[in-house]
Specification:
- The protein has helices spanning about 10-20, 25-35, 40-60, 110-120, 135-145, 165-180, 185-205, 215-225; strands spanning about 70-80, 85-90, 95-105, 130, 155-160.
- A 5-stranded mixed β-sheet has the order 3-2-1-4-5, with helices on both faces.
- The protein is an alpha/beta fold.
- Helix content is about 45%, strand content about 15%.
- α2 crosses α3 and α6 crosses α7.
- The protein folds into 2 domains: about 10-65 and about 185-225; about 70-175, Ribonuclease H-like superfamily/Ribonuclease H (Nucleotidyltransferase, domain 5), CATH 3.30.420.10.
- It is globular.
């Protein structure tokens, strides 16, 4: 996938790893390259992230550790073209990422889409408890999903805000990464970049056995292998 480009796979993947795990702008990353004698325009870096961030998310999925059945679900906000959109996110009781979904709407239909997306993943299980805030959309979404057998009928929905501190704290990582970019120009670019942020966060949370949280070299080798490149 990385063949036929002006820069080597090593350079492209280095840029992707650094941009998606640290709060840095495209222009600052270009300056870091320049310091090493490599001239990369910030618009080129933007194109790399748009192309490979969602691909990283897709390719790590088969390698993720299983999450448990205690879901903590919440949504946070991201500005796109001057308007707020909603990032649905869920972690399990240990803080491991279950899944995420960027949505232009904040309603029961969006909540159902998020739950359905999460339940399709190989690293998730049908939850025994789902802890949410007081958003009225969640009871509507879970009730309808139970009725058609998409959600385990004995799954317990808990609307207890203080129990969701773990996912609310986890939002901060994403918000910190979004901030240097000064917002998004389109919903598509936001979705692609957020997918990369979340994918790299999963790796940094030790959700991949062969890429430990503090093992930068192992993470580099793992990502290179995902894209069929030598580390």
């Amino acid at each position: 996938m990385l063949k036929g480009r002006q820069f080597t796979a090593e350079i492209i993947l280095w840029a992707i790893r650094w941009y998606l795990q640290f709060p840095i702008s495209y222009r600052d990353l270009a300056r870091m390259f320049s310091d090493q004698g490599i001239q990369v325009d910030h618009t080129t870096l933007f194109r790399w992230i748009q192309a490979y961030a969602p691909e990283l998310d897709k390719r790590i999925r088969p390698h993720l550790r299983m999450t448990n059945g205690s879901w903590r679900v919440d949504e946070t906000y991201i500005r796109v073209k001057g308007e707020w959109v909603y990032l649905y996110r869920a972690v399990d009781a240990s803080g491991q990422t279950i899944d995420f979904l960027l949505s232009p709407r904040w309603d029961a239909a969006a909540a159902r889409r998020f739950f359905r997306k999460a339940l399709k993943q190989a690293h998730t299980v049908n939850p025994r408890t789902i802890t949410v805030d007081k958003n009225a959309a969640y009871p509507i979404a879970t009730k309808s999903m139970k009725q058609v057998g998409e959600l385990w009928r004995f799954a317990k929905l808990r609307q207890v805000k203080f129990l969701n501190n773990i996912v609310e704290q986890d939002h901060r990582r994403i918000k910190r990464l979004v901030r240097p970019g000064l917002g998004f120009k389109s919903f598509v670019t936001a979705s692609r970049r957020v997918a990369g942020y979340e994918a790299m966060a999963m790796i940094r949370k030790n959700k991949v056995a062969s890429a430990p949280a503090n093992g930068m070299r192992a993470q580099r080798e793992f990502i290179a292998a995902l894209f069929g490149a030598a580390a």
